[in-house]
Design brief:
single chain, 448 residues, alpha/beta, 7-stranded mixed sheet, 9 helices, 37% helix
């Protein structure tokens, strides 16, 4: 082989080797770039993954915080609602009205209405129904036979009046009144049997057909246990109760009050309410006997006294009890349904008060108390009869009142408002202690 050829072959070999090395170098460079790209992509993936993980963690944390906040808000709302419910359970709203006197003309109006007396109370029904407890003094005894019904002086009231009272929303009925024994033993038995049979859930006070029936009744409402009792301080001069039937009407005596208030205490009563039937007719002042009774009731720890009988509207106030507590007294709510002709007898009132209990101490207080004036309306032929709140009564109604057929006494809207204003509460006074001498019977019994 010639030298020239050999050199050419070597040169060609060298070129091929250099080409191979370049190819290897390029391949290495390409692999490095691929690796770098992969690393970059991997890093980006990791970064993205980290971002996703962090975002997810933040989202989870936020959702957890939101859930915790929602749970706290729900718990707070539940606690607030429970506190509100507890406050509601520790608040007792009560209303009370005076003497339900069903005179002859009202009996006739009910008979003309197919012996339905709902019309007497329909205008104030919502006020009665909205209260937790509502009481009425049913002045007169019931009879079962329409042939026996009667008005003054020996009242005998159809039982349909009781139906109407329950429909109106009354929960408590007091019947230890001046006229409780007008139909003697039969009237008491008819009355108690009616309530026990027809309306066993209605609390009847003051009259009994069984000698061992307790004078004190207990009402459990919301978080309260209320002891209620009804005492009569007089009986119609036309009727006296034989000694053997004395248990049929709860008459006031200090011994009875002591015994009954001790029974209330021993049974865990939170509130003690006394319905007292007594005082002088048509007398705006409080007589000495009534003052003595009230002071004695205050000594026994009574919380509320609601008085009936005087047939006129009187004031109300709080008395300071010897134990440091307070006793709310309504001196007279006047008449409720009635057909008397004197203007003063046609203006009555609805006691309206709220009792509260401290959830921790159990202490009872009455800070919200008032009186809603009521007007008994009837026209000349008694085709329209019923009770109205004074705030709903009109001058025209006053002008059309049937009492103008019987008397020339003033009966106007302005007069009614003036008289109602005189029943505004007086400043709180301190009750004075009395002896255990007992009170005399009230002597006054004017026509009703």
């Amino acid at each position: 082989m010639s030298e020239r050829r050999r050199r050419r072959e070597l040169e060609e070999e060298r070129l091929r080797e250099e080409k191979r090395r370049r190819r290897i170098a390029r391949e290495r460079q390409r692999r490095k770039q691929v690796m770098r790209q992969r690393m970059i992509l991997g890093g980006a993936g990791i970064l993205i993954l980290l971002v996703v993980i962090i975002a997810a963690a933040v989202t989870i944390r936020n959702k957890k915080l939101e859930a915790e906040e929602a749970a706290r808000a729900a718990a707070q709302k539940e606690a607030e609602e429970e506190a509100k419910k507890e406050a509601e359970r520790n608040t007792l709203h009560m209303v009370a009205v005076g003497d339900n006197l069903i005179h002859d003309s009202l009996i006739q109006a009910g008979e003309a209405n197919n012996w339905n007396f709902d019309f007497l109370y329909e205008n104030i029904k919502s006020d009665i129904e909205n209260a937790d407890l509502a009481s009425v003094n049913q002045e007169t005894p019931f009879v079962n036979d329409h042939e026996d019904v009667a008005g003054y002086p020996d009242f005998a009231t159809p039982t349909e009046v009781g139906d109407a009272l329950v429909k109106a929303g009354f929960d408590i009925v007091t019947q230890a009144t001046e006229h409780a024994y007008d139909q003697e033993m039969t009237g008491i038995l008819n009355t108690v049997t009616f309530w026990d049979t027809e309306y066993p859930d209605t609390t009847l006070l003051g009259v009994h057909k069984e000698e061992d029936d307790s004078r004190v009744k207990f009402i459990e409402k919301k978080n309260f246990k209320i002891a209620v009792v009804n005492y009569n301080c007089m009986i119609s001069e036309n009727h006296s109760i034989p000694e053997e039937n004395a248990y049929m009407v709860d008459l006031y005596s200090e011994d009875s009050v002591k015994e009954d208030m001790q029974e209330a205490e021993s049974n865990g009563a939170d509130v003690k309410i006394v319905f007292l039937h007594g005082g002088k007719d048509d007398d705006s002042k409080t007589d000495a006997n009534m003052e003595e009774r009230l002071n004695f009731l205050a000594q026994q720890g009574v919380d509320v006294v609601i008085s009936s009988h005087p047939h006129i509207l009187k004031t109300y106030e709080k008395l300071q009890r010897p134990d440091g507590g307070e006793m709310l007294v309504y001196y007279s709510l006047g008449n409720f349904a009635n057909a008397q002709t004197s203007p003063a007898n046609l203006l009555g009132g609805m006691a309206d008060f709220t009792i509260t209990k401290d959830s921790e101490s159990g202490e009872i207080s009455i800070d919200d108390y008032t009186l809603i004036p009521l007007v008994m309306h009837y026209n000349a032929d008694n085709s329209q009869c019923g009770l109205y709140k004074l705030s709903d009564y009109t001058e025209q109604m006053a002008e059309e009142h049937g009492m103008h057929q019987q008397t020339d006494e003033e009966f106007t809207l302005s007069w009614l408002k003036e008289k109602a204003g005189q029943a505004e509460p007086v400043q709180m006074v301190t009750g004075t202690a009395v002896t255990d001498s007992g009170a005399e019977e009230d002597e006054t019994n004017t026509e009703e």
